[in-house]
């Protein structure tokens, strides 16, 4: 059958692989934050990254030995398959493990990605994938030193993440995906968050729905961290109240405890962030 050479071709089937370490050990450079907030931020950034990847690929794999991770990702609404590490060493070993699983299922295009891109959009992921016709190519982070994505088409992934990974990937034969090569800028795909300072530029691009509630509305900074205790009290508008460890009464909207079983029992303690007298997000 004749085909129109100008017709838009469907995207090639592609798989994405992310290696996730337990949040207890993740994002150590965010150690200036209270530990519950550091852990929560690491989690929400991973969720937003995975949600964007899932909107652009056919198979999304997370490599981890965390026993409850699959159910937790499912509760977050993500269609993700968790692959055991099977003795893989470090992030690069885990990505190689996931890439091998994807290749065994017939995927010739595999993308390895970091898990801290909270502003990532599916369109940018597809732009990166479409730019690679064969071999390996990498997307440097905003600093130009690190790497956020590595794509392999028809060849092994061979990841060299962590440290000065952009140079390491280049030296290994991978092609740098410049904006000129991509045909457009993809700042959201380059904006990884390793420190609290990095969160500002990411917030300026627009964060995903999991990370957004951790920031003060209309601002580019994290909200105040605390622990709250639920009560049976309500304010004059009938909104439920909680009490912070500092003794402040805070409005606790149902939307702030998304993912938790409601109604909450009186006296339940939750980690939370708040601003202007309202809890923005609360979690166990």
Describe this structure in words.
The chain is an alpha/beta fold and 284 residues long. The protein folds into 2 domains: 14-205, Spore Coat Polysaccharide Biosynthesis Protein SpsA, Chain A; 223-283, OB fold (Dihydrolipoamide Acetyltransferase, E2P). Helices cover 27% and strands 23% of the residues. It is built from 8 helices and 12 strands. The strands form 2 sheets. The protein has a 7-stranded mixed beta sheet with strand order 3-2-1-4-6-5-7, sandwiched between helices. It has a 5-stranded antiparallel beta sheet with strand order 10-9-8-11-12. The longest helix has 20 residues, at 35-54. The chain is elongated, with a radius of gyration of 21 Å. The chain starts with 13 loop residues before the first strand and ends with a strand. 43% of the residues are buried. The model is unreliable at 1-9 (pLDDT under 50).
User: How would you write the strand order of the largest sheet?
Assistant: 3-2-1-4-6-5-7
Q: How confident is the prediction overall: mean pLDDT?
A: 93
- The backbone outline, from C-alpha atoms, is elongated
Q: Kindly state the number of beta strands.
A: 12
Number of helices: 8
Tell me the name of the CATH class of the largest domain: Alpha Beta
Query: Spans of 5+ residues with little confidence (pLDDT < 50)?
Result: 1-9
Main beta sheet, described? 7 strands, mixed
Order of helices and strands, N to C? EHEHEHEHEEHEHHHEEEEE
CATH architectural type of the largest domain: Alpha-Beta Complex
**Radius of gyration, CA atoms, in whole angstroms:** 21 Å
The CATH superfamily label of the largest domain reads Spore Coat Polysaccharide Biosynthesis Protein SpsA, Chain A
**CATH-derived topology of the largest domain:** Spore Coat Polysaccharide Biosynthesis Protein SpsA, Chain A
Strand composition percent:
15-25%
Class of secondary structure makeup: alpha/beta
- How many discrete structural domains? 2
The helix content is 25-40%
In whole angstroms, the N-to-C terminal distance is 59 Å
Organism: Friedmanniella luteola
GO molecular function, one term: GTP binding
InterPro entries: CofC (IPR002835), Nucleotide-diphossugar_trans (IPR029044)
Keywords: GTP-binding, Nucleotide-binding, Nucleotidyltransferase, Transferase
